[in-house]
Amino acid sequence: METSSVLLHSRTLPFGFTFANNKVSLRHLDKHLSISSSQRHQSLKPFKSPLHCSFKASPLSLALTRTRTHLLPPLKCSYSSTTSSDSVNPLLKSLKNLSLDSLKKSLSQLTPIDIVKWSGVLSIAIAATKWTVNLLFNPFFWMYFSWTWLFWPWLVAISFAIYGLYCLRKNIFGEANIFEQLAVVTSVFTWLTLVPPAHFNGYLEGWPFVFFFVYHYFFFFNVTVRKRLYGDYYARPHDPKWEVNLPRWRRLLFCVGVMAGHWLAAFEGPELHRIPGGWTNVGVWILIMVTLLMQYNSTLYLAKYSEKVVVPTAVVQFGPYRWVRHPIYSSTMLLFVTYCVALRAPLSSLFVVAVCLLYYEQKAKLEEALMVETFGDGYKEYAAKVRCKFIPFVY
């Protein structure tokens, strides 16, 4: 008869037992105890390390009684009683070392300047926490008058504007990716179409949402042209003489004037829920479609007769260029006017038109002088045939 033995090692006392001739011998130090056993087990491997024990059991087979234990797979498990010093939490370690004496010692080393500094930091932190909690629990932060109207809290608007300025700085240095360029445009359109009516009405609904997406669609036509020509959205290098720009202060005044016109429209117009709907807004939708079609056709025809989008190779006389000499500028003015009309703000529309005319008039003079220098009599004949610059039959 084979003898099976197992030696279990404890961290305090060794303990072992053996199977021999159907008897089990329990051995604890020098003492023996014998009992009968009716089962025979296969040999088990002894453990070699007192700090790491492993058990390996083979399938059991009973000679007298048949059971289904032989269908079970062999069990394998391992256990390790070792502890790693790396698993100790450093925070708990520092808390264990913290004592009243060490705290007294740290406090005694503080200077009056340190006390004033940390008191100021603590006061600012408490004030910011209190302001944030009050803002989050303020119902007017989350909704205005009804849950069906989208809120626009100042905190989100200002954060979005700061991120837009950050992306604009990267775009000026040529480091902005597509997402950051989109963030610049979206932040500008947010402060043009959404923030002003939200500020004066306390909520948002209706036309501001429509024009938020219309502005995106309108000003991305030239980007889609780049995609069709080059396969990506990035501008290509070209002759710098075609980069016609007015002085920086004029451009800044133009941006401020356009922004002021949108805020005046939100201030002048009635509350958003008082703007009638239905068939009374058909004219606004017609103006939107005319604006988009004018911008699309102008950009398309200009791209067909241009090299690298901005460098013209011929005098364009098709599409909207049959009616005005600068249809892209005309469509931009029409877009701003349509926004004011939708908000029922006629005086603001006149203000926006005046701002655009003052800016585009100066820019158009520089562009036309460059066109005459490039194409000579060809452009002069076109200018004599199409007399209006921006507004058909008017100016």
TrEMBL record:
The chain crosses the membrane at residues 149-166, 178-200, 206-225, 278-296, 336-360. Gene3D superfamilies: 1.20.120.1630. It is a multi-pass membrane protein. Keywords: Lipid biosynthesis, Lipid metabolism, Membrane, Phospholipid biosynthesis, Phospholipid metabolism, Transmembrane, Transmembrane helix. InterPro entries: Phopholipid_MeTrfase (IPR007318). This is Steroid 5-alpha reductase C-terminal domain-containing protein. GO terms for cellular component: endomembrane system. One of its GO terms (biological process) is phosphatidylcholine biosynthetic process. Its main location: membrane. The lineage of its organism: Eukaryota, Viridiplantae, Streptophyta, Embryophyta, Tracheophyta. It is found in: Endomembrane system. GO terms for molecular function: transferase activity.
